[in-house]
Design brief:
The chain has about 180 residues and is α/β, with parallel strands linked by helices. The chain has 2 domains: about 60 residues, no CATH class; about 100 residues. The protein is built from 5 helices and 5 strands; from the N terminus they run H-H-H-E-H-E-E-H-E-E. It has a 5-stranded mixed sheet, sandwiched between helices. Strand 1, helix 4 and strand 2 form a beta-alpha-beta unit. Helix 3 crosses helix 4. The longest helix has about 35 residues. The termini are far apart.
């Protein structure tokens, strides 16, 4: 469909050009070459403008320059072999995007919690090892994790602007030896 306009343009230009009995002459070939160059130049300019708009302007207009929080969370979850949880807060991340970006783990094999309960994993201390992804401002969950897994460690993950994007808590249960 996009080429219909070009065919019409070609016919109009070729119809206005004096016809020769022996077929298309050098002038027609020059005209065709000029039209092809103009078309290629226009397409090239459009590709360049679309690329700048999509890959630069759009990215820079997004919060945190469109840092892929879901991709980074999926990488952390994929790299962990035990039970994994993510504690969401309003507008923190998209759990479906995290599921889609997992490459090594079954998308259903991690737990997406709105708020953790004290009497259920991960806060009840029943797991030997646990990974919990927490928002940097969710101090209540951070404190609850410290109580449940005193030997646990928080690892901060920063975005492209060097702002804390999320914390990954690695907890290990304290068992009597």
């Amino acid at each position: 469909m996009a080429g219909v306009g070009l065919v019409g343009l070609w016919r109009a230009v070729a119809g206005a050009w004096p016809a020769r009995a022996e077929g298309s002459g050098p002038a027609t070939r020059v005209l065709a070459a000029l039209l092809a160059l103009a078309l290629a130049g226009g397409v090239g300019r459009e590709v360049w403008a679309a690329g700048v708009t999509y890959f630069k302007d759009f990215r820079l207009s997004q919060p945190r320059q469109n840092y892929s929080l879901s991709l980074e969370m999926a990488r952390v979850i994929d790299a962990y072999s035990g039970e994994a949880f993510a504690i969401s807060r309003p507008h923190f991340y998209d759990g479906n995007a995290v599921r889609m970006l997992l490459t090594r783990r079954d998308p259903a094999a991690w737990h997406d919690l709105v708020a953790p309960a004290a009497d259920a994993p991960p806060l009840d201390g029943s797991l030997d090892r646990v990974l919990v992804i927490v928002h940097p401002e969710d101090t209540a969950t951070q404190e609850a994790l410290r109580r449940a897994y005193p030997r646990g460690v928080f690892v901060e993950h920063r975005d492209d602007e060097d702002i804390a994007a999320f914390w990954a808590f690695y907890g290990e249960a304290q068992r009597a030896r």
